[in-house]
Every structure is written in C-alpha cells, then in structure tokens.
Amino acid sequence: MPPHPRLPAVIHAADALSAGLQNPSLLVGLHRDIDGLTGKDGRSLGGSKKQYALRWGIFTMSYAAVEAFFNDVLALDPSRTRHLPLNPDKLRHVGQQHAVRLFTDDWGVRTRTLGNAIGNRSRWMAYVGTQEVKLYLADMKTLRDILSHGGDPYAASNHSGALWPLKGGRHSMRLMGAEGFIQACCDLASQTVLAHGGSPADFPEWPEPERSGLSAERRPSLPLLD
Length: 226
Known about the structure:
Layout: H1 7-20, H2 22-33, H3 49-73, H4 88-97, E1 108-114, E2 122-128, H5 130-148, E3 164-165, E4 171-172, H6 175-195
Antiparallel strand pairs: 1-2, 3-4
C-alpha cells in the first residue's frame, strides 16, 4: 500500500513512544535488582510493598506513553482538547476519518500472563483478533483508571485473563504483566506504522528490559509482525 501522508508524523510519534518507554523498561530491571537488597530499616526489599509499588509505576508510565502515541497519531485538529482513550473501537473510528484501518482482526499484542504449566510460571502469550485485543486493553484501562484515582488495583477486571488471580475474586498485575504491557505498547505502535503504509525499517529501536529465564523466552509471532 502507498504511504499515508501522515506516515512521517506516525514515525515521529513512534520514536517518541520508544523514548517514553525507556524509563519503564529500566524500572523493570531495578525491580529485579533489588530482590536481594535490604532497605534502611534492615528489612528485605524483595517481596516488599516498596518493591511491589514499582510495578504500578512501570505500568502507568507505559500506559501514559502509548495513549499519548495514539493521540499524536490521530490528532485531527491541533487545537482539539478532547483526549482519546486507549479504546480500540474509538481509535478505529477516528482512524477511519484518516482513511486508515486500525485494530483490524489481524492485529495482536504480546504480553506475559500466568502459564498453565506446573508451577504456574508466567509465559509470553499473544492476544490476536479484534475481540481478544479489546478485552486485554479494556482490563488494562480499568487498572489504569483505578490507579489514577487512588483506588485498589486488586479490584481490576480480568476478562482477558491477563492478570493473576487472587483469593476473594481479586486480581493482580505482577512485574511480568507490567513488563508484558511494555511489549504490547511496542506491538500496537508497530502495527500502526504498518497501517499507515510504513515498513519494519520505519520502526524505532524499541527498548527492552533486561531479560533472563522465562522472560527471555522467544515471544510468540503476530500475523502482521512476523
């Protein structure tokens, strides 16, 4: 397909997103680095509330960056003040006004979720198709909204199954889920570049947290990216 007139602006927005995801990626590494350290009170930081708080920071920073990406890409009027939410249906509708097909059924995202193997270790998995991506992003939006209003993050919905179940019907985003959301942000932006007639050569160098063990496993393929 021929390049869309806004492709250069989309590439610029993708570059800005890559820069915006640098700090969340570094915080993933910090979360792992402090596992064996102790705080000033002499207590272990690994498994502490201080360490757990990092995951919420990683997630909210990443969410803000990818939401800003889509607002930059789909700005119809520089003077508009209405903010576009990270909602596939609404973003698809605005994309149509730009003559761009977004969030089609061949779109997907990769993230880390609770695995089904013995030990329930987290694994990379792909959400592919309009409905699966919609459910995943709806859960992420619910979690972001709760965090933004100072609510209980364990009360987030989990219709996609991307969060970790807790007792009493509550759900948690583990560090692995926050790391996975960074990957999902990169996947969404890459597919947006392609939708505007770009190619993989137009993708920025996406930041990646330091990976080891299960997080270093090969990520699943996506229809448009592999």
